[in-house]
Fold:
Amino acid sequence: MFEKFIKPILVIIAVSMFAWILFWSRINISKKKYGKKLTYRAELILFVFYIYVISVMALTIIPLPFTRFQLSTGDVNLIPVLNTVRDLRVTLAHHREISEHTWQNLIGNIIMFIPLGIFLPILSYRYRTLINVIIIAFICSASIETIQFIERVFDVYRYVDIDDVILNTTGAILGFVIIHSLLLKKDKMQWRGLNDW
Structure:
């Protein structure tokens, strides 16, 4: 079973390293045009952000061995909030503990996008307003769900749920609130973003 994970993990590492080299080269070339150079702080932040993006892709898009199951039409939910509220109501009505799946769905989807809400204002001043962070988070999450829906055509099991988009966006909002209260509100983030590094 362990051997089945080696190939996908090696593919993720190979693709991500190649993409990182291209990404890093592109940024450095654009900086050199203006006679600037990336600082070590900027490179560190970009690399951590890159690792975050690759991790999210690995969790949500790249098929692993355990994601191939029998598909069913009930695994696509396009009605917002209803299923999540119903699951919680049934759990509370029967005095049962919230299932691991429900916790993973609720908490996991929120936590997964908190870093996005933190990174965006750091990377660019354009994302230092809540509405811009919400728009980017929504687009990213909706793109993930769309790719997961397409993957189902290739017999890769993915549960497609509009609530994931709502929860992901909520996570990005929390991330923005965190960075705003720590740095933006106190005027500790004077740089405009990547171009100032």
Notes: The chain has six helices and two strands. The chain has one domain: 2-196. The beta strands are 76-77, 160-161.
